[in-house]
Structures are given as C-alpha cells and as structure tokens.
C-alpha cells in the first residue's frame, strides 16, 4: 500500500486537491475535515479549545497548536486499499511523517495563496491579516524544511486538473 502525504501552507490547495482526488475515485483523508482527527490544543494548558469555527485571530493562533491524533490517523490510513492520500498541515506532523511513502509539498506564488485564503468559504484560518503575515513569513522556511525531508514540490499555480495529474505522475 502506498501512503502519500500532501502538505503546504494555507491556500496552496490541499482541500481542493483532496476533493479532486476523491472525484477521481481515490481514498483521501483531509486531516482538517475528519472529525476529531485534529484539534486546537492550548500550548499552556494542553486542553482542546475551539474547533474549525474558532476565532482564528493572531492571539488564538499563537496560543494554540493544530495537533493531529497520530493513533487515529494510523487507523484511518491502514484500510484495505492500494493507495491513500492524506492532506493537511499539523503542528506535530514531524511525528507522523514516517507513516508515509512519499510527501508532496504544494507551492504557489504567495499572492495566489493569499487570494485563495481571502476567497475561501470552508474555513476562516488566515483571514486575520496578522495570521496571514505569519503564513507569509513561514512559507519559504517551511518549504525548505519539507524539501530537506524529501518532499516533492508541486506548483499549484495552474488548473486543478493539471496539479492532480502532476501529483499522480510524481508518485508513480
């Protein structure tokens, strides 16, 4: 079984790609969309706070980590299927990257991902301008870190069909 992790900063296209892969018949897990797979955890108290609908202002984001339940993720990815895609970006993802055969890093022009964040309606992460500044500041260091970990870069400044075709080509 091949297990592929698709990651990138907010607005690079993870959710859109997950939906396109599902349309094409693939088994896909979006860590942001599966109930109780990820939670906002207060860095000081260790308590779960907020959910997808939390007020994602800069104060909230600085005080919390987006943590994936690795045991639950492992159960979800070990289904009887030849190929599974997992999309997302969690604070603790370094602790679960070993579960995957390949890592795909989504990259695009910063103006593109900022525009996508502004226009999306499925969640409000990054709508706060100071949070968006944080995303812009960590975009390049995050990409460099993931490339050092063996991630394969995919440019998402093109049509969703082209992006998914590129991903499928790069995992074979």
Structure description:
With 172 residues, the chain is of the alpha/beta class. It has a single domain (2-171), classed as Rossmann fold (3-Layer(aba) Sandwich). It is 38% helix and 20% strand. It has 6 helices and 7 strands, in the order βαββαβαββααβα. The protein has helices at residues 14-23, 58-63, 70-77, 110-119, 129-148, 160-171, and strands at residues 2-7, 27-30, 38-42, 64-68, 83-87, 102-107, 152-155. A 5-stranded parallel sheet has the order 2-5-1-6-7, with helices on both faces. Strands 3-4 form a two-stranded antiparallel ribbon. α1 (14-23) crosses α6 (160-171). The longest helix has 20 residues, at 129-148. It starts with a strand and ends with a helix.
- Main-sheet strand order equals 2-5-1-6-7
The secondary-structure class comes to alpha/beta
Question: How would you characterize the largest beta sheet?
Answer: 5 strands, parallel
N-to-C CA distance: 12 Å
CATH class label: Alpha Beta
Q: What's the helical proportion of residues?
A: 25-40%
Gross CATH architecture? 3-Layer(aba) Sandwich
Number of strands: 7
Which regions are unreliable across 5 or more consecutive residues at pLDDT < 50?
Answer: none
Q: Order of helices and strands, N to C?
A: EHEEHEHEEHHEH
Q: What integer is the average pLDDT? A: 86
Gross geometry = globular
Number of helices: 6
Q: CATH fold name, please?
A: Rossmann fold
Task: Give the C-alpha Rg.
Answer: 15 Å
The name of the CATH superfamily reads P-loop containing nucleotide triphosphate hydrolases
Number of domains: 1
Proportion of β residues?
Answer: 15-25%
């Amino acid at each position: 079984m091949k297990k592929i992790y698709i990651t990138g900063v907010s607005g690079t296209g993870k959710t859109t790609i997950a939906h396109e892969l599902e349309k094409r018949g693939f088994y896909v897990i979006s860590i942001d969309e599966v109930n109780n797979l990820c939670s906002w955890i207060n860095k000081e108290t260790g308590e779960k706070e907020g959910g997808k609908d939390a007020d994602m202002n800069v104060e909230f984001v600085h005080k919390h980590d987006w943590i994936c339940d690795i045991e639950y993720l492992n159960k979800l990815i070990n289904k009887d299927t030849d190929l599974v895609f997992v999309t997302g970006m969690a604070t603790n993802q370094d602790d679960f990257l070993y579960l995957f055969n390949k890592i795909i890093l989504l990259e695009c022009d910063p103006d593109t991902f900022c525009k996508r964040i502004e226009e999306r309606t499925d969640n409000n992460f990054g709508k706060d301008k100071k949070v968006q500044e944080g995303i812009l500041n960590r975009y390049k260091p995050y990409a460099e870190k993931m490339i050092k970990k063996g991630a394969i870069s995919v440019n998402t400044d093109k049509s969703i069909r082209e992006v998914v075709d590129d991903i499928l080509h790069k995992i074979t």
